[in-house]
Amino acid sequence: MTAPLHDTGAAGTAPTDVTADMPAHRIEGRSPGRIAWMRLKRDKVALAGGVVVVLLVLVAVFAPVIVSLLGHPPNEFHEDRIDPLFGTPTGKWGGMSSDFLFGVEPVNGRDVFSRVVHGARISLLVAFLAAFVAVLLGTFFGIVAGYFGGWIDSLISRTMDLLLAFPQLLFIIALISVVPNKLWGFTGSGVRMGVLVVVIGFFGWPYIGRIVRGQTFSLREREYVEAARGLGAGRTYILFRELLPNLVAPITVYTTLMIPTNILTEAALSFLGAGVKPPTPSWGQMLSKAVSTYDTDPTFMVIPGLAIFVTVLAFNLLGDGVRDALDPKANR
Amino acid sequence: MAARGGPPGGAGRLRHPPGATARPSTVLAYLIRRLTAVVVMLLIVTLATFAIFFMIPKLTGTDPALLFVGKQADPAAIEGIREKMGLSDPVLVQFWKFVEGLVAGRDYANGVDVTHCPAPCFGYSFRNEQEVWPVLTSRLPVTLSLAAGACLLWVIGGVAAGVVSALKRGSVWDRSAMSVALAGVSLPIYFTGLVSLAIFSYALDLINVDYEPLTQNPGKWFESLILPWITLAFLYAAMYARLTRATMLEILGEDYIRTARAKGLGEGVVIGKHAMRSTMTPILTILGLDLGALLGGAVLTETTFNLPGLGQGAVRAISDKDLPIILGVTLIAAFFIVIANLVVDLLYAVIDPRVRLS
């Protein structure tokens, strides 16, 4: 699940090999990757975002452990915590107590804390995997379009335009509504998650594809590409060994900025009933339930909303920091 | 309008050889080419939507005719509907008939039982056998009201906040505005919407959010849309403020701004005339894309505030598996997106003198 992060993290230092062995004897040679890392370390706000992101990933990975220590199983009903007359949680603040840290859900009394913690899994898993799909497709088609030009470029560019012109959200919910419950041996939530990942990723790749195409366009005329060609390097070698390492910076920036968008999309789809199926907990789904109870139990609305907000904000802060750090024009 | 251009030749997106002027015939040719592209684009969107909604049920064994008449219908009724709606034709034939119906209207015939559906014919709702087009047109004004008001708010608010932030870079105003903007892009519409409902409609009881059309009751129309407008505009204003600030900062560092200042122009003219003009170009690009794609945001806003617009209609249709309505809304949305893109491209030529139509 954290694969894209590790990938980009490791790849972010890749340009080191390209520039670090410049003749710099006593002076410490700073590779672009190191300069970026130093800048990022100085950016307190981005670091704070990064710390929150790491914490969230840990929460998602260890959700069952956390819940077994601090909460109740996510699908366990606690009707004794519910006012039988109004269906609202008993006690103040949506039934918050040391036993139920974030209170209980109206009507059935499920533990909100454990549902929010488990919701983080769905949210992050879908967002990361969809970003991975988008980066894979976007990088491949972008680099191919930019390097070969001509009709290949026209075809890929028009396809990207077309995808960007699609009413995505509508299209995705409609698509999900016709996808069956059983597909390729998966059932229930597994199918939905797979479809979510593929569809969100599929509609996301043109954004990365455009950037990569533009960059490739200018890079392919550089001397080092010509040199590689002169030395008899094949197309695949030039594309993936010469060009790709130099595209790592923009790809990293757009990946970090794409993850929060994906989280919002997943939550929006769940909100509209096109996310993972209940009873699997997800944040958007909790909010859509809160639509009918916001007047009687505002706590139940605020908790999942804050979960989405904090997560997206943390990724945005980190993404902005990464962008500033990797920007060659910045001279802080 | 587009024929009036700057000096011949020029830099930027110029495609034809230097020296070529934008003659009226070139503009006409450009328009024709673009309009053809628009039509092709819409056809492809229709085909894709069509294929997905009519093929996937087939692959998974759900019969569209069953969706139409309901599961308990007798075989004869199902066969009748299938015949009448042409559901047993190959998908491409169905697609062709659908497009034909859009352009010229079509007749659904089943022996003597003929139903005429005038152009633009989007077919009949699976649920209540209403024509789709009137359903769409009755919902469109709600979405347009929502979009227009929100757009006005966010462009004015976002651009103004961005410009002031750029001019007073690093000030308290800049920092607080950008913090609010960052929070704004990180908040889901349906959450801010719910919170505003809880505060203004429920706790304070200030605003009644039951929608009424503008033509019936302008006061209530306005009242019911205030919260949705602000909610939707807040998200976009935040994005626009960030974008405007970044663009403005970049442009203020350009040589021609220095030149303008050096030749003694007042700061108002330098910013208002020279810098703003270039700043507007990327804003306009995004605006075109956003206005077209606004239906996505409208889906969430309309669902949250229970507004009877297109987005809400689509969500209901989806839970009803009412394919013709979904297809209709998707097509209308795609139509707005391509048209918005076309208008933006034409406006470029007006705002940015470096751009020639090619």
UniProtKB/TrEMBL annotation, chain A:
Subcellular location: Cell membrane
SUPFAM superfamilies xref list: MetI-like
Pfam families in the cross-refs: BPD_transp_1, OppC_N
Gene Ontology CC entries for this record: plasma membrane
Keywords assigned: Cell membrane, Membrane, Transmembrane, Transmembrane helix, Transport
Domain ABC transmembrane type-1 intervals: 120-319
PROSITE patterns, per the entry: ABC_TM1 (PS50928)
Membrane topology: Multi-pass membrane protein
Region (Disordered): 1-24
GO BP, one annotated term: transmembrane transport
Top-level taxon in the UniProt lineage: Bacteria
Gene3D superfamilies named among the record's database cross-references: MetI-like (1.10.3720.10)
TM stretches of this protein: 45-67, 122-148, 160-179, 191-212, 299-318
Family label: Belongs to the binding-protein-dependent transport system permease family.
Protein's recorded name: Peptide ABC transporter permease
Species the sequence originates in: Wenjunlia tyrosinilytica
Lineage: Bacteria, Bacillati, Actinomycetota, Actinomycetes, Kitasatosporales
